[in-house]
Amino acid sequence: MGKVSKGVNCSVVGCKTSAERSISKEKFGSGGLSVSGEKRVFLCHEHYKQWKKTTKKERDLDRARFR
Ligand SMILES: [Zn+2]
Q1: Closest alpha carbon to 59 in 21, 29, 34, 22
Q2: Per residue in 9-33, pLDDT tens?
Q3: Nearest Cα residue to 32 out of 20, 16, 49
Q4: Where are the domains of the chain?
Q5: Which of 20, 32, 37, 41 could covalently link to 28 via disulfide, CB atoms 3.0 to 4.6 Å apart?
Q6: What predicted TM-score, i.e. pTM, was given to this entire model?
């Protein structure tokens, strides 16, 4: 995960906000968002928050399964 230089837009389809974070597509996984891009996904502030929330939810579900 890294900072993004200015001028890169969010990879989420339909979003035109400039990106703040980049994540490898592998790590992004099933973030629940439609994104463009081959290897890296660029996310704006809002979508990064949204993605983190989604992945946290998935982690919580995984944990619940082990109970
Ligand atoms: Zn966005």
Answers
A1: 29
A2: 999 999 999 999 999 998 888 667 8
A3: 49
A4: 3-65
A5: 41
A6: 0.74
Do you know the residue count of the chain?
67
Cα distance between residue 15 and residue 3, in whole Å: 18
Contact at 8 Å (CB) between 23 and 41?
A: yes
C-alpha 12 – ligand 1 centre gap (Å): 5
Q: Tokens in use for 46? A: 């809002």
How far is ligand 1, taken at its centre, from the CA of residue 26, in Å?
A: 18
Band of pLDDT at residue 44, cut at 50, 70 and 90 = very high
* Distance (Å) from CA 45 to ligand 1 centroid: 7
Rg (CA), the chain: 13
Cα 55 to ligand 1 centroid, rounded to whole Å = 16
Near ion ligand 1, which residues have CB within 5 Å?
10, 12, 15, 17, 44, 47
